[in-house]
Specification:
Blueprint: H1 5-30, H2 40-52, H3 55-75, H4 80-101
């Protein structure tokens, strides 16, 4: 079963949303200071409060989840053996490009 142009575009959009949000999520959670509360539940609630009121974390998280929703809806009509490689491989490439653009050290000898 061949994928239509709309399905391929949806999978590319998924890759852009996933790959673009990954470095932003990494950056937003990189400066999270551990919260020391009395018990584990209080600590979890404090950490969740910090993250969900931090727009630098919340916006990329919402974009990432939109990508997941589009991926889920696209899987209903797309061959799985085509959808997974397209979305995941392109997401990796987009993650590398966005990460490099944000100044991350991605390793290797890649020079941009």
């Amino acid at each position: 079963m061949a994928a239509t142009l709309g399905q391929v575009c949806a999978l590319v959009l998924v890759a852009v949303l996933w790959g673009g949000s990954n470095p932003l999520l990494k950056r937003a959670t990189g400066n999270v200071e551990p919260v020391q509360e009395g018990n584990r539940l209080e600590q979890l609630l404090q950490e969740m409060k910090y993250l969900f009121f931090n727009y630098q974390y919340l916006v990329p998280l919402c974009l990432n989840q939109c990508g997941s929703l589009i991926y889920y809806l696209t899987l209903a009509s797309t061959d799985l053996s085509l959808a997974v490689p397209i979305s995941n491989s392109l997401a990796l490439v987009v993650t590398l490009v966005v990460g490099k653009f944000l100044g991350e050290d991605i390793g290797g000898k890649f020079r941009a």
